[in-house]
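hiii so um. not sure if this is the right channel but i have a protein structure encoded as tokens and i wanna go backwards to a sequence. like what aa goes where. can anyone help
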């Protein structure tokens, strides 16, 4: 049963062979085109897939298509243009893991958590009233 599930836990459709063939051609010829041309080619493949099969591509196919678009940056040894976050950097940013101990741990939180805090650092939320009998 595990053979029918991709890396993202989504079921592998029986029509994946068609998409694999198209994506392999795009991967082989990716360096011959500019980024804009690759984006157009990826959009054509995804639209054609949806038109033929009536469903969206699974996660592993979409991952391969993003690698086709970003092939210049992924193969480059020099960090120029777009910077990518590693898995460790993403954990540090989102969850505050492996960060120096300090007062503010420096992790991302939703803006709704800070909606009642003013510039001076004071929390102006409405107080919670406790009614006693």
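sure thing!! here u go:
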């Amino acid at each position: 049963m595990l053979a029918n599930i991709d890396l993202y836990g989504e079921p592998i459709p029986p029509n994946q062979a068609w998409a694999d063939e198209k994506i392999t051609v795009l991967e082989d010829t990716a360096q011959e085109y500019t980024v804009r041309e690759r984006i157009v080619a990826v959009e054509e493949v995804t639209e054609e897939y949806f038109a033929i099969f009536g469903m969206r591509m699974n996660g592993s196919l979409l991952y391969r298509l993003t690698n086709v678009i970003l092939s210049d940056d992924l193969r480059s040894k020099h960090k120029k243009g777009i910077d990518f976050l590693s898995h460790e950097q993403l954990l540090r940013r989102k969850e505050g893991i492996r960060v120096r101990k300090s007062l503010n741990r420096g992790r991302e939180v939703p803006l709704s958590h800070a909606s009642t805090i003013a510039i001076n650092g004071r929390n102006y939320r409405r107080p919670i009233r406790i009614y006693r009998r």
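oh and The chain is about 45% helix and 0% strand.
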